[in-house]
Amino acid sequence: MTSTQSTDSRADLDVGDFTGAIEAFNRYYIRLPAVQKLPFTTLSVLDTLAVGGPKRLSELVKTEQMSQPGLTQLVTRLEGEGLVVRRPDPVDRRAVLIHITESGEKVWRSRREDRGRHLLPLIAQLEPAERQAIAAALPALTRLAELGAQAGR
Known about the structure:
The chain is mostly helical.
C-alpha cells in the first residue's frame, strides 16, 4: 500500500491515483494556448479574485503562494494594467481590498472560454460513459475544492 492510499477498509478511492490523474490533467490544462498570453501568476490572481471576491493582500499571499513583496509588485502591475483596483476595506478602513475590475473579469472569462474551446474536441472523443463519469464527479470535485479553500490550502 502506498503512503497516499487510505488504510481505511471503506476507502473506495486511491488518493495516489486521484492525485496522479489531477496532476496530469492540470499539466495539460494550465498550458492550453490562449488568445491573450499572460503569466500564470496573473491568471491565478485574477481567478482567485473572480471566483472568491475581493481579498486583502495578505490573503492573496497565502492563496498564491508568493512572497509579500512579489505579490505587491504583481498587484501594482495589474492595477496599472486596469485589471485590479485597491479599495478600502469597509470593515477595517486601515486595510485595503484588492478587487478585480471589469477588464480583469473580461480577461478571466476569455481565458476560461479559450480553455473550453480546446477541451470540446477532446471531450467529444470520450466515450459517453466517460463523459457521464466526469459529469457525475463534478459535484464531488467542486466540494473537494471548497473544503480545501475552507482549510486554507
